[in-house]
Design brief:
This protein has helices at residues 44-57, 128-137, 154-167, 196-205; strands spanning 6-10, 13-20, 23-28, 31-34, 60-62, 68-73, 76-86, 89-95, 101-107, 109-111, 119-121, 175-179, 182-188, 208-213, 218-223. By secondary structure, it is of the alpha+beta class. The protein has 3 domains: 6-60, no CATH class; 63-148, no CATH class; 152-227. Strands 6-7-8-9-11 form a 5-stranded antiparallel sheet. It has a 4-stranded antiparallel sheet with strand order 1-2-3-4, covered by helices on one side. A 4-stranded antiparallel sheet has the order 12-13-15-14, with helices on one face.
């Protein structure tokens, strides 16, 4: 476990874990709990289990990757799951009735019941720290944003954001897509605001190779690794 004392709160419910007289002390609105053991006499996993059980007894829970959740959105309760956690925050994805999906960053410790708080975030603007954590964990998302192209995989999104920053435009001008053979980028040379050579140099430097070049100006490049 992380260094003590540990304190979490959600919607006015607060719980704390500390060490007093070499004993673990749990405090919460439903009462306190004292364990007949302290640091050095209990494994972290066992202590973590006690902590989670104490939170649940006080109406709180800690979100973990892969856990199913309920989210309040557009006056309804939507089903979703936890994609990633970083410190005291969690990235969650939930499905809307129309079939599209959405993302939200929320507190990692929440009250029992549907999640009502948090900050919505676009698939195309998820901070890199979340994408990197999902890549490390091998976690993918459904990625079906409303009125927007299907989202790239988190791994491909990291590559695309690097390319996009160097090219200077977004996914509405040049179309990226994730497939069985990796990340592909499709663009129409004549409609770009700068020389096509500039963009192809950027793609080459980011580990892309051309797989198709048509006479009408359309080009498709595929990421094969590299920088």
């Amino acid at each position: 476990m992380e260094d003590l004392p540990r304190r979490v709160a959600s919607h006015g419910v607060a719980c704390e874990l500390s060490v007093e007289d070499d004993l673990y002390i749990f405090r919460g609105p439903q009462g306190n709990l004292q364990l007949a053991s302290g640091p050095g006499s209990m494994e972290d996993k066992r202590l973590e289990a006690h902590w989670e059980a104490f939170l649940r007894s006080n109406g709180l829970r800690t979100l973990v990757v892969g856990a199913g959740i309920e989210v309040v959105s557009n006056s309804g309760v939507r089903m979703g799951s936890v994609l990633s956690t970083i410190k005291d925050r969690a990235l969650i994805e939930y499905r809307m009735p129309c079939g599209s999906t959405s993302l939200r960053i929320v507190d990692r410790v929440v009250t029992d019941g549907p999640i009502v708080d948090g900050r919505s975030v676009s698939y195309w603007s998820v901070p890199n720290k979340w994408l990197s954590r999902m890549k490390e964990s091998g976690v993918d998302w459904i990625g079906l944003p409303q009125q927007s192209p299907k989202a790239l995989t988190p791994c491909d999104m990291l590559v695309w954001k690097k390319v996009r920053a160097r090219m200077g435009f977004g996914h509405t001008v040049v179309t990226p897509s994730s497939g069985d053979d990796g990340l592909r980028i499709l663009f129409h040379g004549p409609t770009l605001s700068a020389s096509v050579k500039r963009y192809t140099r950027v793609l080459s430097s980011c580990g892309f190779q051309p797989v198709e070049r048509k006479r009408n100006g359309w080009q498709t490049w595929r990421c094969v690794g590299g920088e």
